[in-house]
């Protein structure tokens, strides 16, 4: 009897290769699932940071509102159903000084694919009435028909399907486009030049629109992002009288 070395048969080799292939596919699917989950988590984290940054900027703009006399076209706060414009201080954080005023505008613009984009626009620092009125008008034109120059001053904040605004006045949330004015003209901010010699007029200047006690922002996010509705309420920092 001669000893013969017995090897694997062809069927055994094929079975072993099949098992190894199945294990490799399962391992690849597991790694691919982990990679996709990590990418989705990172994308969601980026979306959260973008949303937080946009809402923080919104609150910072409102916190820096100034009460301006209603001279010419410019006011302090205005919502016409398409663009939300405001006049805020333009503080220089590096120098710790007031660098004048800025006109800031927020709007919702539809892209070519029908998706909406929440945008913010701001003017350079302003130091006189003419610059203020010009920037106020430019902010309105930017929301309607932006040109190349105005687009360079805008920032895409967040994909938004729809947005709404409400003012808190007389202890109730009301339509921002309803009338609400103050009876006295506030003085201009320090360092801001209203103009040269005062014009001779027979009637006093028009009253300035009162800053509401609060502003409610309602954003409806598209389903591709978070989905759902976000509501953010802002209260005027100088609000007193025991209100909250």
Structure description:
The protein is an alpha+beta fold and 244 residues long. It has helices at residues 10-63, 129-144, 148-151, and strands at residues 77-79, 83-92, 97-110, 116-122, 154-159, 162-169, 172-174, 214-221, 228-235. The chain has one domain. 30% of the residues lie in helices and 27% in strands. The chain is elongated, with a radius of gyration of 29 Å. It starts with 9 loop residues before the first helix and ends in a 9-residue tail after the last strand.
Task: Please describe the topology of this protein.
Blueprint: H1 10-63, E1 77-79, E2 83-92, E3 97-110, E4 116-122, H2 129-144, H3 148-151, E5 154-159, E6 162-169, E7 172-174, E8 214-221, E9 228-235
Antiparallel strand pairs: 1-2, 2-3, 3-4, 4-5, 6-7, 6-8, 8-9
Descriptors:
single chain; 244 residues; alpha+beta; five-stranded antiparallel sheet; four-stranded antiparallel sheet; elongated
């Amino acid at each position: 009897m001669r000893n013969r070395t017995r090897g694997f048969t062809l069927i055994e080799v094929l079975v072993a290769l099949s098992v190894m292939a199945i294990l490799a596919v399962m391992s690849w699917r597991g790694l691919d699932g982990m990679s996709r989950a990590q990418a989705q988590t990172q994308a969601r984290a980026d979306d959260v940071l973008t949303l937080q940054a946009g809402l923080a900027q919104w609150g910072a703009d409102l916190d820096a509102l100034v009460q301006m006399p209603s001279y010419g076209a410019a006011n302090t706060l205005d919502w016409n159903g398409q663009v939300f414009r405001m006049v805020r201080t333009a503080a220089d954080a590096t120098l710790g000084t007031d660098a004048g005023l800025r006109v800031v505008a927020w709007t919702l613009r539809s892209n070519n694919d029908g998706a909406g984009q929440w945008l913010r626009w701001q003017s350079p620092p302003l130091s006189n009435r003419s610059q203020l009125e010009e920037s106020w008008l430019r902010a309105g034109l930017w929301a309607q028909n932006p040109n190349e120059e105005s687009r360079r001053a805008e920032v895409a904040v967040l994909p938004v399907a729809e947005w709404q605004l409400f003012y808190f006045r007389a202890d109730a949330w009301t339509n921002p486009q309803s009338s609400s004015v103050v009876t006295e003209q506030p003085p201009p901010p320090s360092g801001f030049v209203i103009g040269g010699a005062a014009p001779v007029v027979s009637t006093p200047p028009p009253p300035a629109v009162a800053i509401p006690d609060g502003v409610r922002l309602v954003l409806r996010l598209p389903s591709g992002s978070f989905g759902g509705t976000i509501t953010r309420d802002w209260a005027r920092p100088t609000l007193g009288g025991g209100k909250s």
